[in-house]
Amino acid sequence: MEILNFEFQAGETANKSITVGCVGSGDLEILLQPNTAGIAKIQVTTSVDGSSARWKNLFERVFSVQVPPAVNIQINDFGATPGVVRLRLEQAFEEVKHG
Predict the structure, then answer these.
(1) What is the model's pLDDT at position 26?
(2) Could you state, in chain order, the average pLDDT of each consecutive group of 10 residues for the chain (99 residues)?
(3) What is the CATH code of the structural domain delimited by 2-98?
(4) Could you tell me the pTM of the whole model?
(5) Which residues carry this modification: O-(phosphoribosyl dephospho-coenzyme A)serine (predicted)?
(6) Which one of 29, 42, 66, 91 counts the least CB within 10 Å of its CB?
(7) Domain ranges in the chain?
(8) CA–CA gap between residue 59 and residue 98 (Å, rounded)
């Protein structure tokens, strides 16, 4: 297991906590909690060692087209593909915005 940490500039503070996905399904879950610091803090716990560059690139791509809300994000990964990660992030952000 590897634990990775990232920070990105963020927009508005989220107004609620969200959980999407499920580690038991064999891919990943994302937990979001509001963060008032104006940044998005991300902690990834992954079963895939040596994947820091892949995660960093994925977050940079996602956040180049949308500003994340100010949240603490915890991702529990069990080898999910980048497409699944992006889908789960977008689901979580949509839930934060529109509930």
Answers:
(1) 58
(2) 95 89 75 90 93 94 91 92 89 85
(3) 3.30.230
(4) 0.90
(5) 25
(6) 66
(7) 2-98
(8) 22
